[in-house]
């Protein structure tokens, strides 16, 4: 079952974001939101296509991703 975000067009996603955010939101914050949404859509698409990383591999790599 696909989530609502995947069923929406890119334009609909941007329009939805613009309706939800406050009027005084900076362009940088809008850009960050769009980058996040794009990354989520890409990840969901990869999962749908079977392009996932095994949990064991993630567990091995995770310590190197943590910033101390």
Keywords for this structure?
single chain; 68 residues; mainly alpha; 71% helix
H/I helix tally: 4
Basic shape = flat
Order of helical and strand elements? HHHH
Q: Which residues form runs of ≥5 with pLDDT under 50?
A: none
Residues in helix, %: over 70%
Strand content: under 5%
Radius of gyration: 16 Å
Largest sheet descriptor: none
What is the terminal-to-terminal distance?
Answer: 38 Å
How many strand segments? 0
Mean residue pLDDT: 88
Short description:
This protein has 4 helices and no strands.
What report would you give on this structure?
71% of the residues lie in helices and 0% in strands. The protein is flat and about 45 Å long. The longest helix has 22 residues, at 27-48. The mean pLDDT is 88. The chain is mostly helical and 68 residues long. The protein contains four helices and no strands. The termini are far apart.
Element layout with pairings:
Blueprint: H1 4-7, H2 10-20, H3 27-48, H4 55-65
Helix pairs in contact: 2-3
């Amino acid at each position: 079952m696909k989530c609502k975000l995947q069923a929406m067009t890119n334009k609909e996603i941007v329009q939805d974001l613009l309706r939800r955010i406050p009027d005084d939101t900076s362009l940088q914050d809008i850009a960050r939101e769009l980058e996040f949404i794009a990354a989520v859509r890409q990840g969901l698409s990869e999962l749908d296509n079977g392009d996932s990383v095994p949990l064991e591999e993630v567990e091995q790599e995770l310590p190197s991703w943590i910033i101390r």
